[in-house]
Amino acid sequence: MVTILKGVSLEVKRGETLGLVGPSGSGKSSLLMLLGGLERATSGTVRALGQDLSAMNEDGLARFRRGNMGVVFQSFHLIPTMTAQENVALALELAGQGDALERAAAELEAVGLGHRLGHYPSQMSGGEQQRVALARAWAPRPAILLADEPTGNLDSTTGARIMDLLFGLRDQGATLVMVTHSPELAERCDRVLRLADGRIVA
Amino acid sequence: MTPARLALRIAAREMRGGIAGFRIFLLCLTLGVAAIAAIGTVRSAIEGGLAAQGAEILGGEAEMGFTYRLASEDERAFMSRIADRVSETVEIRSMAGGPDVSTLTEIRGVDTLWPMVGAAVLEPAISVEEALAVVDGRAGAIMEPSLASRLGVSPGDTVTLAGKPFRLSALLVREPDASVAGFSWSPRTIVSMEALQSQGFLAPGTVFDSEYRLDLPPDANLTALKAEAIRTFSDEGMRWRDERRPSGSTARFVEQMSAFLTLMGLAGLAVGGIGIYAATATWVARRTSTLATLRVLGATGGVILGASAIQVAVLSLSGIVIGLVLGAGIPNILAGWITSSLPFPVSFGVYPVPLMQAAVYGALVAALFTLWPLARVADLRAASLYRGGAGQVPRGFAVGLVVLAAMLVGAAVLFTGNWMLTLSMAGGIAGTMLLLLGAAWLLQRIAAGVSRVVPRWPLLRVTFGAVAQGGGLRTALVSIGLGLAVLAAVGQVDANLRQAIDRDLPTRAPSYFFVDIQTDQVDPVLQRLNAAPGVTEVKSAPMLRAVLTKINGRPAREVAGDHWVLRGDRGITYANSFDETVVKGAIWPEDYSGTPQVSFSAEAAGEMHIGLGDRITVNVLGRDIEAEITSLRDVDFSDAGLGFVMVFNPSALAGAPHTTIATIRSGEDDADMLNGLARDFPNVTAIRIADAIQRVIEILTAVGTATRAAAAITLVAGLAVLVGAAASAEAARLREAAILKVLGASRAWVLATFAARTVLTGAAAGVVAAAAGMAAGWGVMRFVMEAPYSVAVGPALGIILGGILASVVAGALFLWRPLATRPAQVLRER
Fold this sequence. Notes:
The complex is a heterodimer of chains A (202) and B (830). Chain A has 202 residues and is α/β, with parallel strands linked by helices. Chain A contains 7 helices and 8 strands; from the N terminus they run βαββαβαααβαβαββ.
């Protein structure tokens, strides 16, 4: 077993925007996954919204994420067999929220994709896919939004639009934790943590 | 939204994408289900035909039959009491003669009621009564067309039966109750009972069977009547049949054959299961990111498993339904052809029971082979998005696998109703699969060894190295290995039987049997035979027909079960000495005349659990003779010679009318001798062993063909699996070809190594299957046929070639892209 994170102690406040930066392999993505309960720590504890994530099993974590955690990935991870609208609606359905399809349409409208509801991921550009992913993550209004290099696969113009959307969500009250390589993005965060070799160095 | 509805909704959205990646899955399932459904449909059609037309097939609602004699007064009284009408027929073997030729025929004597049910079709279209009438002092005879043409006669000509003149009045196009006669040695001639009796055909001592067809009142209780008849008359050798099961031997044959073929179809389905497994595993792997994304969005393992299982279930259901439609449809489309090639009526239609059974088999196999890959998704972690890798299979699922496998075998036992056959075939299939896996492991080690000893020949090194590493060898062996092995076994047995019959039998078996030699004819006939040129050996023995009815005073079947010695009547003889070795006890003295003694076949006695000191009762022409077993002999029935299960001391059978049977060996053209015998001793019937053997070969060939067809199902399912495996290996080949090309390999070089791997794996599957076939062939010849076995090289080579062909066909479909694609396209996509 390889220990990826060592002696990391971190607290994120509600409504805060935190940037995680550092070279490849420094452990920033692993830290993000730990925060989202997508990965379990081999030792130590992860608490979120007053609950101990390290005590939950996979299904417990899945239930916890519903409505509490939104995740945006570098490579979008839309479900290829579902339309944009269905991808977004699914998050609402899993979170047990009503009117999933209607609200999904509204969310997509909000990210400027009102005309692409019935399109499949393979029919959309990278920027469009990431906007769908963003709408999907944000639709259930989670308390915490995690983003793993959300603009890493996009050209700079498209990336900038995504970032505007993302920081727009902060203004709607989201707690945002973001892994990024981009110094400009990091600058826009309330706080920036630098990781190297599994430790927080700044 | 409930988890179930969520799972359903996710499944529905995913499924809109179509069935890409599931073609092999569907093909494997559909093929197996269709085969089993088709076999079951044909079986039901045959059984339906037998049941619906039982009375017509039997020629009456019930039948009482006797050997060597007509019904007694008591029996006639019983029949006329229970039946409205009784029709009497007899069957007797005899020689039919034309102007130049004489040949064996089965004479059927019929009374004026025949046929009581159904109609005979004659050519010219005259009535049976007219055809059998006496015209100008000659009784009419109806012959099968094949017989008439062999004799060179046509309606209107005179023919002889056992030397007596008859008038050939018509040809027999259709005999309504022909199929119950079962296995017939020779073509049919129909004459009237009256003619037979007046010409002395039914004299005591001649070999004939009599059958009485009963037209019962509508309210007759067949079960009760059968029980009463058996209780009263079975000791006198009475046989009972009724319309519920008009042809016991046919029904039994159909039952066993369909059970066997169904199990072969199930084996095909199981082989297809490998394809089902592979397709499901690939699908699950391909969906890892989708499933992990669902996890990220908060889906529980249950929802993900549910959504996956629903899709697999819907696909399985479609595969099963298509299979059922094909399985029910194809036999009905081919109904005309099937009906005309079977000797009994078949009523086609859609039979729900076999379809239901095929559906159960399909569902169980689908569940069995998708459970494992599906189980992985239940525990899939969200982190798989980053890390890749599949989930662990929860332990409970292993129990599920065992339960499903047990249910599958249980269903097979229940549906075929033959647990011995089912369990031995299940064991055989499982054993063969394990052997194939073991062989794959061994061959991989060998390939690894070869790749190490040829380091300076890169093509060989790369090729053998790939065979040693990849799973291709294992896939090829388990997919087409079983089908090839069954084909190989059939080929070995077939070749050995033919060899035994063509080469060995003539040196072991006599050339001719002569039956019905009357006592006063024995000396002149034997003299004639001994004097004939080319005849090297003449043997003879007195023969009577007898039914073994009791053992130690108890009904024989209670003691010995359904042993073949107890089925129908047997030939018995008497003698003071035998050629065979006495293995236990001692033979009676030459002039013994005390209480009857009998010498029994040691092997049959062992099987029937009887031995020295036991008393057996045989019924000879209505008379009971009880004798004590005083010796056991080693009787060899395999040489088709004069082997008797029971030999009595002469005085025990003194006074019983009998005939003599003789055998000769002859190496020459015997036409003159036969024609002379037929002229001077018209009642003596000559049976050419080669002709009789030919009928047996025909049956064995039919069984072999059916087995081959069933093995072909397994093979086609295996081929589908192989194609699926080749398809999923294409990406890896694409990459490998690109890298080889980057390193400077020409396309020819790449083609050479890929082709060589394909040929090698196919040949390996063929060699292993041929070896398994030889082992099975040896077992069948040694223990079932009790005959020597020698390797049949031709069929074995055919199997190896078949393996190569199958592998090449599957591989060639996916060879082109790796060869044609430029390296940059592949490597940059990565």
